[in-house]
Amino acid sequence: MRRHLTATQATPDAPDTSWMTPSAAASGRSRQGRDRTRFALPGLRVSTATAAVAYPFLAQAPLTHKGTFLGTNMGTGAPFCYSPFELYRDGLITNPNILVAGEIGSGKTNTTCALTLRSIPLGFKVAAVDAKADWARFARAYGGSAISIGPGRGNRLNPLDVSDALLSARVDAEGNAIDPVVLAKSAQLRLLEGLIEIRLERSLQVAERTAVALALEQALTASGGSPILSDVAAALRAPDKDLAAGISRTVEEMRVAGDAARWAFDGLLSTVAKDLFDGPSTTRFDSTAPIVAIDLSDLYNDNANLSIAFTCASAWMEAALATPGNGQRFAVYDEAWRVLAHAHGAIDRLQQQFRLARSWG
After folding, report:
1. pLDDT tens column, 278-311
2. Distance CA 15, CA 38 (A)
3. CA distance 213 to 150
4. Which of 43, 62, 125, 360 lies in the 20 to 30 Å Cα band around 167?
5. Which of the 8 DSSP states describes residue 297?
6. Which CA distances in Å does 160 have to 21, 140, 296, 325?
């Protein structure tokens, strides 16, 4: 038997009809009423500009009309307003914290400035820890306070400071009862642990945390409630016998437990932290100023010391902000990624501060 094969060639303009070809029956069975015809359409890829023309009525409703004007909604042409305080008050968000992230030159600083500086006429204030001197310039332009921290600047901040207003407070911004002494001591302990972990480049162990906590307690007693970093270092070198006995430990056991922390603290005080953060503060936080900026730009290219300075300056600023009735304020941590990339303890401390943001308004 001779078979004849006929070859056909589709013309370029012929439509693709392969999708109309029935597929073989599954497992050799008949279709039994089911249509197993293959149906596949080619994918369609368009730009967002084309999609906007094809679907012009798909536009999100504005989040809120309250807050600070930031720009125009490109989908609706309506003004775009934003206020973390208003959104939190209306129950649209669960916390008022904001993360601004993006590539270099994408407008992170400009966006943050637009939100915060435009909010000042609405009654809000700004406090910033500034690694690039941008916020210091804004503070001077707005009649605020710019505190320059760096070698030879003559300013010193005690990160263990506690505001008198906090110590006299009994409720937070939401009306919840608080123990100000416990809150202040907890913040000081988180700071000390964070600084030591920056130096050690690891998390503290349980015994080390206990040694640091007892050293803080000893420093508070020895200084009359106003310790400086050197007081804590001295307590780590010579633990108090009664405090050690209170947890059924000897002085030698506490000295051994705090050995790594002591070395880290001694190393810390051999850096620029000795001149910039070890001693009574030489300036006060002006709560009436529209902007208070702590300028750390002198340390911008010194990653190790910038992490320490950023942590200490943040703690000093937060101690002033953690006061009920102090008004609503944007707390800006500019270039925070540089600190978090090198500081283990700074991450936990900053996260805890975010949790307290609601309590302080």
Report:
1. 999 999 998 889 999 999 999 888 877 888 898 8
2. 16
3. 29
4. 125
5. G
6. 79, 27, 18, 22
